[in-house]
Amino acid sequence: MKLLRIRMPFLATALLVAGLFSIQPAMAGGTAPGTVISNQATVDFTDANGNALQVLSNVVTTTVSQVGGVLVDPDNSSTAVPGDVVYYAHRVTNTSNSADTINMTAVSSQGWALQFYADVNGDGLFDAGDVLLGDSDGDGSPDTGILAVDAFLDILVEVTVPGATVDGTVDTTTVTGTSLFDNLVTDSAVDTTTIAAPSLAVVKSVAPAGDQPPTTTLTYTVLMTNNGTGAASAVVVNDPIPANTTYVTGSAAGAGTTIEYSHDGGITYDASDAAPVTHIRWTLGAALASGGGSATVSFQVTID
Ligand SMILES: [Ca+2]
Ligand SMILES: [Ca+2]
């Protein structure tokens, strides 16, 4: 955000406008367009008789021209999970020397869907009162509407992360404001979104391995490891008792889990492991942390 500074020049570079000297505050973009700057010299001298004489030079004038001026701040960054909708706040300021409209465009490096909103209450958050940014001049780009010199508009850029985005994906969305008066005058800010999603590796093993005769007790183990950069929460493991085997009562285990049993083919579950058991369900009591958080559950059956 650029602060509005009003400077009062002390030097006698005051402007001669319409016959009056006036001292005007300097704007961020400089003197207002159309202002006429005039300059004239006075020469005093005396002749041989001591008469005071004076000659004025010609007057030279310069008319101040209009310039564009745009400031889009700040850059932002955030992590997100697939399916998130993220809002980035920006302030768009007219830093030119005249009222202007600033058109807004945004491009996502990942091709994600983007939308502009006016942050009506200026809190940097998307609220019920915030509205889609309009296109006041009908040129196809949403814009700020007419902003006075040094005035600003707070906006939000809505970034929609697709549901299937892979963990670790990085998007840079470039948000650009362009002066309507001079479309060569632009300023940009960058919003960086990094996907921090869970990625579970699930490995099933059986012991003893290899061919086994009837009545053998088999121990099944499920190892879950979160190799992603985001936590995995509300983890539930469901495992059916294989055909031609019988669940060994009391064998289901899993530290930090709630274990439930189905007796009707997985339709309903309860806390009783009385036969027949057709499915076992483990609900983890804590999230699996990113970067290798793991949990293990197991149960036993005998081959019929
Ligand atoms: Ca808001
Ligand atoms: Ca527009």
Give a brief outline of the structure.
The chain has 304 residues and is mainly β. The protein has strands at residues 15-17, 20-22, 36-39, 42-46, 52-56, 60-63, 70-73, 76-80, 85-94, 100-108, 113-118, 131-132, 143-147, 152-160, 170-179, 186-195, 200-207, 217-226, 236-240, 245-247, 257-262, 279-284, 293-303.
CATH architecture of the largest domain: Sandwich
Provide a count of the helices.
0
How many domains make up the coordinates?
3
Strand segment tally: 23
Unreliable residue runs: 1-22
CATH class assignment of the largest domain:
Mainly Beta
SS-based class: mainly beta
Biggest sheet details: 5 strands, antiparallel
Distance between the termini: 74 Å
Q: Estimate what percentage of residues fall within beta strands.
A: over 45%
CATH homology superfamily of the largest domain: Immunoglobulins
Please tell me about this protein's structure.
- The chain has 304 residues and is mainly β.
- It folds into three domains: 49 residues, no CATH class; 126 residues, Immunoglobulins (Immunoglobulin-like), CATH 2.60.40.10; 104 residues, Immunoglobulin-like, CATH 2.60.40.290.
- The chain has no helices and 23 strands.
- A five-stranded antiparallel β-sheet has the order 7-9-14-11-12, with no helix packed on it. A five-stranded mixed β-sheet has the order 8-16-15-10-13, with no helix packed on it. The chain has a four-stranded antiparallel β-sheet with strand order 17-18-23-20, with no helix packed on it.
- A hairpin with a 2-residue loop joins strand 1 and strand 2.
- The termini are far apart.
